[in-house]
Write a structure and sequence with these properties.
Layout (H helix, E strand, L loop, with lengths): L28 H33 L3 H17 L9
Length: 90
């Protein structure tokens, strides 16, 4: 007996099958990638660029740099507490 139904699989990949696959996550994978990229961009950029503005903030507020550097430490702490590890080698 022969079966006339088309079979799915790697051998029948080029044939017209009526079976259509869908993404297991509902198609939101790219949204997750975009949000992850933006999160890394915001946390990572703030963490790196803060050292550039440290002296300007200290001069503008007339306080020592050690008082202002607490802000950078808090930024790093928030990044680590949220589970975002931008710099695993550090």
């Amino acid at each position: 007996m022969t079966d006339d139904k088309p079979k799915s699989g790697p051998r029948n990949a080029g044939k017209n099958n009526t079976h259509q696959s869908t993404a297991p996550d509902g198609g939101y994978g790219w949204l997750v990638v975009l949000c992850s990229f933006l999160t890394y961009l915001m946390f990572g950029a703030n963490f790196i660029i803060f050292s550039v503005y440290l002296t300007e903030f200290a001069d503008y507020l007339n306080v020592p740099q050690t008082d202002i550097s607490v802000i950078g430490s808090m930024d790093a702490a928030c990044m680590m507490l949220t589970g975002i590890n931008q710099f695993p080698a550090m």
